[in-house]
Amino acid sequence: MLVLFVMLSIFDLIGLSMIGPLLNLVIFPESSQPAFVQKFLGPDQFFDTPEDLVKAMGLALICVFTVKSAASMLMARKIIIFSQRQQAALRKRLTVKYQSLNLRQLLSKDSNHYINVIQNHCGNFAALTNLLLQNIGDFIVSVVIIGFLIWTNPYAFFLITALLITPSLSKKSVLLKEELL
């Protein structure tokens, strides 16, 4: 699963890295080809017009995000299957424990109580496992993207971080000010 998490991160990075040059070509079509196009396709003019390059980059971007979506679906399927298997194993273990209870413990509560507890807790456990694995996957993707941003352009990272943190700090200061008054 870790390989799929990293693969999703790589597809996100590829897609995100193509959006900027694509927007640059759409806004400024007279500009030269992006550096990565020249690097991968050579210094020759591979595309006759900027519109051809925009179409090719758009198609490549669609392909990247289509593959990423398919990989995301595969990852979600693997997470669900894993969660369901863990739920079945837990249900089996709890049922065995229930069956091994002595008669005094069984008579102390209604058998429906034990069965409901097993059903509810196993369902909650499966949902929690599913949620945790998806959040861990999202966290890994975020760490890879942030790491790549820091590696390629630390100034952009600090600018984005400042822009994201500043509004939340100002809201908290306003709330704190209102609380004090």
Structure description:
It is built from six helices and no strands. It is elongated, with a radius of gyration of 26 Å. The longest helix is centred in the middle third of the chain and has 50 residues.
What's the number of extended β-strand segments?
A: 0
- Summed up, the helix count is 6
Unreliable runs, pLDDT <50, ≥5 residues?
none
Sheet/helix structural class: mainly alpha
Helix content: over 70%
Quaternary state of this entry equals single chain
- Give the distance, in angstroms, between the N- and C-terminal Cα atoms: 52 Å
What is the general shape? elongated
N to C succession of SSEs: HHHHHH
Query: How large is the share of residues in beta strands?
Result: under 5%
Radius of gyration: 26 Å
Nearest-integer average pLDDT: 77
Largest sheet geometry: none
Précis, in short:
With 181 residues, the protein is mainly alpha-helical.
What is this structure's SSE topology?
Layout: H1 2-27, H2 35-41, H3 50-99, H4 103-108, H5 111-152, H6 154-180
Helix pairs in contact: 1-3, 1-5, 3-5, 5-6
What structural keywords apply?
181 residues, mainly alpha
